[in-house]
Design brief:
Layout lengths: L6 E6 L12 E6 L7 E6 L8 E7 L3 E2 L6 E5 L4 E10 L2 E19 L7 E2 L14 E6 L6 E6 L11 E2 L3 E8 L7 E6 L7 E2 L4 E2 L2 E8 L3 E12 L19 E2 L3 E7 L8 E6 L11 E2 L3 E8 L7 E5 L7 E2 L4 E2 L5 E8 L3 E10 L9 E7 L1 E9 L1 E3 L6 E10 L7 E10 L19 E6 L5 E9 L8 E10 L3 E2 L4 E7 L4 E2 L6 E3 L6 E3 L6 E3 L6 E3 L6 E3 L6 E3 L12 E3 L7 E3 L16 E2 L10 E5 L2 E5 L8 E5 L10 E2 L1
Parallel strand pairs: 12-20, 22-29, 30-37, 31-38, 39-41, 40-42, 41-43, 42-44, 43-45, 44-46, 45-47, 46-51, 47-52, 48-49
Antiparallel strand pairs: 1-2, 3-4, 4-8, 5-9, 6-8, 7-8, 8-10, 11-13, 13-17, 14-15, 14-18, 16-17, 18-19, 18-20, 21-23, 23-27, 24-25, 24-28, 26-27, 28-29, 30-32, 32-35, 33-34, 33-36, 36-38, 49-50, 50-51
Amino acid sequence: GQTLTGSGTLKVKVSDAAGNDGTVFSQAYVFDNSAPPIVGITSASPAGARTATFTVTFAEAVTGVDAADFTLAMTQGVAGTISGVNGSGSTYNVTVASIVGIGTMRLDLSGSGTGIADLAGNTMAGDYTAGTTRNVLVTGPRQVVSGIDISSDTGRSTADFVTSAPRQTITATISGKLNAGERLLGSLDAGANWTDVTGKVSGQSLNWVGAVLLEGDARSIQLKVVDTSRYSGALNVFDTFRYSGAVSGAVAEQSYTLVRTGPGVLVQGIDISDDTGTSASDFVTAIASQTITARLSGALGANWLQGSTDSGRTWRDISDKVGGTDGTELSWDGALLHLGQNTVQFRAVDVAGNAGLVSYQPVLVDTAVSITALDADKLEGTGVEWTDFSFSVMLASPTDWAATVTWQVTGARTYQATASDFWDGTTEGRPSGSLTFAPGEVQKTLLIRVRADSIFAQDVTFSVAIAAGTAGLSVPVASAIGVIRNDDDLIGGASDNRLLGSNSAEAILGLSGNDTLIGQDGNDTLVGGAGGDRLSGGAGADFFRYDSVDESTSRARDTIVDFQLGDRIDLSRIDAISLLGGDQAFVFIGSADFTAAGQVRFANGIVEANVDANLHATFRLAVMGIHPVTAADFIL
């Protein structure tokens, strides 16, 4: 409950019952509960200075002083920016930059929310606005130059202003258009020498073409607007130091580094993780994704390492793939090669983008070739010389060079296509040839021309095989099948014939004789003609056509041996009632007996038709099969 006042010393001792005192302990103290007072704010900077310093003095040591604690009190037409604070203890210097105008300027200290406190923790109690008011007399141009950039920043970042290219186009933006008598000057050596670049200005944009940077680091581009109307000397744009007498505006600055020579680090002993060729060191592989290893001749230091798998067309920063105890071991995992011929390349690059010597290693990745049929199972054609059968030849991945494959047509399967089945308008024979893929191309269409004739033949088959390819092309079993479908009618002669159709749709005509007609696959039309014929439609929806009741009678009856769902018996070409004029259609009466001419019945496996008035069958046809014959199975 003791109350301290001012400054003093605290003392403590221990006394026994007899009044003897022990050692006395003491501690000096300072009691301070007052806000830190400010002595003053002064400035000795001249009125014409574009950058001024204000000295802020406190009565005691304080902390927490920064630029946000201050404000500028300026008369109209004066401008400036608080750019920084430095100092400690009781004295701090506040820098005000970019000062322009004519009038006065004062630096004030905010009294609250500043964070300024003395060593006892007491904070500021009120504003301070009694500092020195300094005159401002800066009559130069007010334009500010900003956004300085160079056209070729070859460093590791495109905005680090590190480059290997001395000749540049320097761009910048001026806050306002140049007035009469004002000129823009540029310097590439931190203001030691100035060049008039007014002619490079359009509106408020600078485009300084052909600027030549100076080699080295810590160089500086500077730009400023000067008012030459206040300079009485003769101006000479080729002797720019004469502008020193002109009134200058604020200087904009951008540092840069120009390096002209590349690093001397080399990459040696290049190898791949999966060499699947004839030997483990022939750099032939079927695996595109590799781990590429090598050793550097020295540590990278500030340089970085680039790698390329496409002969140097594109480069990748692989510095993070370099390690080892001495920083010289490269292990580039996941390096993706292109199928075909590759050239793996490495180079060290310095901070300015200068590349050292390139190390390289050729690697061949096999490219598999395949062929598939596109439109290669169809009719041979009618009324034309040939029909194109198309195939697609594919590369598994694109190559970086022109690749050629050869191909050959041969007969295939039971009914093989022969030389006479192929015709290109001038030459008969099984064709062969070659296809060339352009770099990057992976698909080609191959056309095989098949002769279109009018002679019946069985469906025949041929094979198109890839025979060989250029280096880097792997040709496994690569072939595709084409099927030439017959589209011509099969016609028998006067004797007994056995007529075997193809697997396509066609008409088979027996004519006279006791013929056997076999349709096989396809939707065929079978016409037995005169005689007792045996008819087999085979697979497909077939038509058994009769043009006369005389083509199947009681004495020479035809037999359909495999009638099935979808097949039809066509009697529509027969006049159902011979005694009437015109062409009448039959009427199906099921298994009932005839009651009139023009009726068709089916009973006990026999189709019968009556065309006259005697109610006896004038047409008889045996039908075998698992499908019972109904009205839907006729064309009447």
